[in-house]
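Researcher: Quick test of sequence recovery. Tokens follow.
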């Protein structure tokens, strides 16, 4: 049975998976153009998980996926910074949430994005430096987790962590992505995006 032939779909009802497939094939669909089957027959049962992952998403370019996490983590850090240390329980909870999100982001980014960059002459050193900045963030997060938010060192370490992460993200979104965009074409950027999301979800499920 071919699920894609049942009924006529319009652009507005295209699933994101189909959008991704079309994007990959370079198919552009006008707003009122009927959707022809996109040629993923036989994959209906297979990519169920991937389909769920691509629900409500556009093409998964690595940069979009990284940016979503980076914005989220920066926003969480600002919220933590604004919390009084008297609200220690909720402050610790939010810190732990941020730590889990950032740790999964760092590991998946290293395994998928930095590992690919490291193999390229033009980005090798940047990848290695990025890796070291991740290491600094890991050490600080571990140390903060052992302290009470009432300890003055908690705030000092958190401030340094926040500055380190912000500086790191600024370099990534600037210089490192510019290097990556010069090296990886769009299809590769999409493959990396999909691999990054899959890896991160695996890590989050394990940590869960
Ligand atoms: Fe990142
Ligand atoms: Fe990073």
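Model:
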């Amino acid at each position: 049975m071919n699920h894609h032939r049942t009924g006529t779909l319009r652009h507005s009802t295209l699933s994101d998976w189909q959008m991704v497939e079309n994007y990959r094939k370079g198919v552009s669909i006008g707003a009122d153009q009927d959707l022809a089957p996109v040629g993923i027959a036989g994959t209906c049962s297979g990519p169920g998980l991937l389909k769920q992952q691509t629900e409500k998403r556009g093409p998964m370019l690595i940069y979009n996926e990284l940016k979503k996490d980076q914005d989220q983590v920066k926003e969480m850090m600002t919220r933590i910074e604004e919390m009084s240390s008297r609200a220690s329980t909720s402050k610790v909870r939010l810190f732990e949430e941020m730590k889990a999100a950032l740790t999964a982001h760092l590991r998946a980014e290293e395994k998928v994005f930095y590992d690919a960059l490291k193999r390229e002459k033009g980005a090798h050193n940047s990848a290695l430096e990025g890796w070291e900045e991740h290491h600094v963030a890991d050490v600080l997060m571990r140390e903060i987790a052992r302290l009470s938010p009432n300890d003055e060192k908690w705030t000092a370490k958190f401030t340094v962590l926040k500055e380190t992460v912000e500086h790191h993200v600024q370099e990534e979104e600037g210089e490192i992505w510019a290097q990556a965009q010069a090296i990886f074409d769009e299809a590769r950027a999409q493959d990396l995006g999909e691999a990054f999301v899959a890896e991160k979800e695996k890590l989050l499920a394990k940590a869960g």
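The two ends are 37 Å apart (CA to CA).
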